[in-house]
Amino acid sequence: MTGKILMIEDDVDLGIVTQQYLISSGFDTTLATTCRQAEELCSRQLFDLLIVDVQLPDDTGFELVSQLLESYPEQRFVFLTARNNKESKIQGLKLGGDDYITKPFDIEELSWRIHNIINRQQVRRSADLYIGDIRLVQDQMMLVFQNDHQVNLTEREFEVWKYFALNANRVLKREDILLAVWGENDYFLGRSLDVFVSRIRKLLSHSNNVQLETVFKVGFIFRAPNT
């Protein structure tokens, strides 16, 4: 089982031990120790799941998740905390958390809980994604426009389209796109991104309400009506 995990835990020793175990279990796991660091990482790449400690040095995990959901409403998360009381659990579940895990926890059990959450999430992601009058057929990596024009995408093209779609109507920095889709930021990948952007703009001629705008010296805005 694979998946991108962001663990937000200010206990560095616990965080590192858990991170290493999850990596050995096949999860691409990144560790953050503050809310600000987590926000920065989430702005640069997409994560399949956040593991969020409730007590963090610069804010609560509840506040962090509430803020992230404003920009990333599809983000999945679980809370990891020493608070073993009904009120905290209800607060976490009200935010839409997939689970609420109390410390101390069994690390193998945590790994399987993550496995099950991501597996369910990947099933959900097989559903079509609508971007204005465009349908992104995820399990076939295909675009379908309102005029029934269909376009098959390569895997990388699909990832670019999906990133733009999930971050519609936001200023997207070039370096953040490169890190999220390619995993690194360099000059030659930047030229590749330009090629992808040019192709996207050509395909958008089939759309009546979706546009890709350039933000000078910054990046792009993928404008789409709320659906």
What does this protein look like?
The protein folds into two domains: 4-124, Response regulator (Rossmann fold, 3-Layer(aba) Sandwich), CATH 3.40.50; 155-223, Winged helix-like DNA-binding domain superfamily/Winged helix DNA-binding domain (Arc Repressor Mutant, subunit A, Orthogonal Bundle), CATH 1.10.10. The model has no long low-confidence stretch (mean pLDDT 88). 24% of the residues are buried. The chain has helices at 12-24, 35-44, 61-71, 86-94, 107-124, 155-166, 174-181, 187-203, and strands at residues 4-8, 28-32, 49-53, 77-81, 99-102, 129-131, 134-137, 142-144, 150-152, 171-173, 211-215, 219-223. The chain is of the alpha/beta class and 227 residues long. It has a five-stranded parallel β-sheet with strand order 2-1-3-4-5, sandwiched between helices.
